[in-house]
Amino acid sequence: MPAPSRSKILTQEKSTTITDVRVIVSSPGRNFVTVKIVTESGIYGVGDATVNGREMAVATYLKEHVAPCLIGRNAHQIEDIWQYLYKGVYWRKGPINMACIAAVDMALWDIKGKVAGLPVYELLGGKSRRGVTVYAHATGDTVSDTLDRAGALIDQGFKAIRLQTSVPGLEGSYGVLGDKKDYFEQQSSRPLPPEQPWSTRKYMNSIEDLFREARARFGDDIAFTHDVHSRLTPIEAARLGKILEPYDLLFLEDAVAAENQDSYRIIREHTTTPLAIGEIYNTIWDCKEMIQNQWIDYIRTAATHAGGITGLRRIAEFAALFHVRIAPHGAPDLSPICHAAQAHLDLWAPNFGVQEYVGFGTEISNQVFSYDLSIQDGMIFVGDTPGLGVDFNEEAAADHPYKRSYLPVSRLEDGTLWSW
Length: 420
Ligand code: KDG
Ligand code: MG
What we know:
By secondary structure, this protein is of the alpha/beta class. The chain is built from 13 helices and 18 strands.
């Protein structure tokens, strides 16, 4: 009788047939949707499906429409399951669908790594660098508050920093957290979306001061970014890019909402300030023209929102052809599982640029999530735990039930609804 193949032995020893798919919505400080896929051998993987403000839609989609289709499948068939959930639903793309695919995808990579006894970055092709360079956030109510926070980050070893300051005359304008611990959502005090004012004129008249003073105080060695959060029109963004050229930004983020990708051509024609976009994109199709026309420099899609490790890897490989680098979204509305998935991918991606970093978790979320990641000298270091090196404690999560919560909305001073 011929000897059984190695894969047969592996399958028998560690059956990767999916037996259970659990979906847990918890709020350890803020809401997260977590997927846990369990295989016959008992090996399980975890994934993040958090879509800020729409958590229950994702959870229902997963429980009702995805989980039943996964039972009995082989967890090793990551690509086939990805295609099955993408092409097989008929309704392609979309934030809810893609976040569900993403969570399943992360969990399957986690399982594959655990079965192989290797961290996921090894399965992707191995390390291309020592660690993952990050940019941290400095925000404040005044330029000097923001720069004091930036100074503290520089003292801790960060070499790239996003700078945001309140716009004078616009209380609570975007990007300014102060000492709020719950990021932008104000869960307990205001469960419905808070409203904030916006004036492009006031913003344009004040923003240059921040970067002029930052360069004067910190010199030329620190990289600075700035997030416009889609508040401008293309020609306004072009003007902002020109205003900021002397301060040599690493990139200007989300200058314009770009459902119409051609908007970035207009900005590009006027300024050499590098451009980044992508945190709300779900697939390569949302940024294909911007990438292939080289209208942007960094693509910021997140593993959770753009189809998981598999989705992000596809975007990274395509972007590499056009000198576009990846700079994945790293806000706290992504769970530590997403941060880990991205850190593994960043470590491998030949065209990695920089990773956004606002901490892996908080004191409360650390009661629920554990991860094999550390930060030192402005870099993330990924441990060699097999899989993603993350875990999710379901019992601890049960102590933190879901709380409805939304991001703010933005209105012009005359009341017109604007991009937040
Ligand atoms: O939920 C919205 C946040 O993820 C977003 O406001 C953060 O723009 C953001 C960023 O760049 O981190
Ligand atoms: Mg952003």
